[in-house]
Amino acid sequence: MLSPTLRTGLSDYDIGRKIRTLRLKKKMGLVELGRHTGLSPALLSKIERGRLFPTLPTLLRIALVFSVGLEFFFAGAREKPLLAVVRKAERVKLPDQPGSPDIAYRFESLDYPATERRFNSYVAEFFPVSDENIRVHVHPGVEFIYVLRGALGVRVGEEEHALARGDAMYFDSTVPHGYRSRGRGACAAIVVTAA
């Protein structure tokens, strides 16, 4: 049994809420998280509700599932402000369909090492594809696009919007959307998503 002082000190970190936020962001249920961690859904539920504080090995199991470090859960204790630098040479290019020769776009994360991100930012390269081959997708939240070079077509729902260099667009990303370069070559843009 924890003393009231320890309970109050641990509660300040709000570890359970942070775990729940990570889990819901991944659209993962307690049972699925239990399968990935080897922990029971009942135990995970108690941790999320703040009824039980996890041991470090238990917390590390959970952290590994979400690709965060233990420091993510103790960020309230950090003495320095949040800061992350991403060098151009260290960015990883992610195609829309890994292994496919037919790539419509490629994204590079600009903020991956930053813990507690409130949004995700990318530099993206879009390639020419025919209208019928635009790959649409959805994700929670909103999306912002700023075109750096070239001409970009952004389909949101049934309508395609033409953007030129310097144009920007903000939209509800729960609506099916997709992209394509409207020119002969690739175009580039900054893309920011927030849930």
Descriptive terms for the model:
195 residues, alpha+beta, 6-stranded antiparallel sheet, 3-stranded antiparallel sheet, 5 helices, 9 strands, 23% helix, 26% strand
Description:
This protein has helices spanning 4-11, 15-25, 30-37, 41-48, 56-65; strands at residues 93-95, 105-109, 120-126, 142-149, 152-156, 159-163, 168-172, 177-181, 187-194. The chain has a 6-stranded antiparallel beta sheet with strand order 1-2-3-9-4-7, with no helix packed on it. The protein is an alpha+beta fold. The protein has 5 helices and 9 strands; from the N terminus they run H-H-H-H-H-E-E-E-E-E-E-E-E-E. It starts with a helix and ends with a strand. Helix content is 23%, strand content 26%. Helix 3 crosses helix 4 (41-48).
Q: What is the mean predicted local confidence, pLDDT?
A: 87
Number of strands: 9
- Main-sheet strand order equals 1-2-3-9-4-7
Radius of gyration: 21 Å
Distance between the terminal alpha carbons, to the nearest Å?
Answer: 38 Å
Largest sheet, in brief, is:
6 strands, antiparallel
H/E element string?
Answer: HHHHHEEEEEEEEE
Report the helical percentage.
10-25%
Unreliable sequence segments: none
